[in-house]
Amino acid sequence: MTTLNKVFHLTDAHTTVKRELIAALTTFVSLSYILFVNPNLLHAAGMPKGAAFTVTAIATAIGCFIMGLVANYPVALAPTLGSGAFFAYNVCVGMHIKWQTALAAVLVASILFILITVFKLREKVVDAIPQDLKYAISAGIGLFIAFIGLQNGKLIVNSDSTLVTLGKFNSPAVWITLFGLILTVILMAMQVPGSIFIGMVVTAIFDILIGQIPLPTHIISSAPNIAPTFGQAVIHLKDINTPQLFMVVLTFLLVTFFDTAGTLIGMTEQAGMVDKNGKIPRIGRAFLSDSTAMVEGAVLGTAPLGTSVESSAGIAMGGRTGLTAVFIGIFFIISMIFSPLLAVIPTTVTAPALIIVGVLMAGNLKKIHWEKFEIALPAFLTVVDMPLTYSISDGLALGMIAYPITMIASKQYKKVTPMMYILFIIFIIFFLVTNM
């Protein structure tokens, strides 16, 4: 305990090993779907599915270890669905680029990412963002997380006429989600310690009892070999020699840059780590951690790693230090032999947790100066567009573009830092590159 306290400063963060462990388990359960979704995406790109499963687990574990030990942040680093989908469907399927070459593009973008981090450009970007917009980013991620939870729980489904609509109440998934949500809400209102985690466990048991979770035929299985993917990014670096591939590198760089910056701001706001001046402690180490994790992920053979929004579930359970991230990494290592068990856990088990976390993160809305229209508009665009565009980086970009415009129009241009004007131009380029 003394050693852990020295390494992770548990006492200073007002937390305990038990609390960090519960927080880690909560984040792991919420994030465990990535072990099966990410391999499916990579398999669509042509990558062997078995190797992709093992790589996902190992890359996530290493990323969590780096984040926990280097930055002492309670957040997980894992392959992101947005980057994974872009990797598989845009680059490999759409552009007919081999997955080995696409991995090389990720590796190049990752190395550039580290250089940008070392020169502290990412820190300067985060420091330049006004505090009101930081609150908006955190709240927007909360709405985004809640929206994902509502979708996963089938409370919101696709609609050809209105894009989304309320789910059908004749669906077992809806009733399971409602059961878990009502239970967790009651536990939260009663201030029961570990409410979110207890809610997930009881919901999983409920699923089993009513026959909605099929029991696995076996519990333990050996992890597939990663030989087919390991090192392919390095071997195929020579393939990055065309304008098209340079654009792929640039897109990976831009998307991961803004996604991770936005998510880290949101997570640190939720954890109460931001000081009264809006500064985020050790943010440089956190940025170096996620950029390093991108490199190791590319070498192992997966799409870009980034800060996981599911980390918010663990933070809501009291996770405050890197010990949470280290525990998450350990759970992912262990998970490699329990893949048959994890495969049967449906998203309806974790959906209530994501919805509740969204509610908690939306609390930052009250801190925004809504009475000032020049602040309200960019904040509103940031908050609303994250769930509506299904992208943290897109919501962040729209808010950053609107902010200088409203400030100039209200004759407050002197309050806009030079970096914000630079970001204004960069975000316009970002949209031109990623949405043309």
UniProtKB/TrEMBL annotation:
GO terms for molecular function: purine nucleobase transmembrane transporter activity. It is found in: Cell membrane. The chain crosses the membrane at residues 21-38, 50-70, 103-121, 133-152, 172-189, 196-215, 245-267, 321-338, 344-363, 375-404, 416-434. Keywords: Cell membrane, Membrane, Transmembrane, Transmembrane helix, Transport. It is a multi-pass membrane protein. It comes from the Bacteria. Coiled coil: none annotated. One of its GO terms (cellular component) is plasma membrane. PANTHER family: GUANINE_HYPOXANTHINE PERMEASE PBUG (PTHR43337:SF11), XANTHINE/URACIL PERMEASE C887.17-RELATED (PTHR43337). Belongs to the nucleobase:cation symporter-2 (NCS2) (TC 2.A.40) family. Azg-like subfamily. This is Xanthine-uracil permease. It comes from Lactobacillus acetotolerans. The lineage of its organism: Bacteria, Bacillati, Bacillota, Bacilli, Lactobacillales.
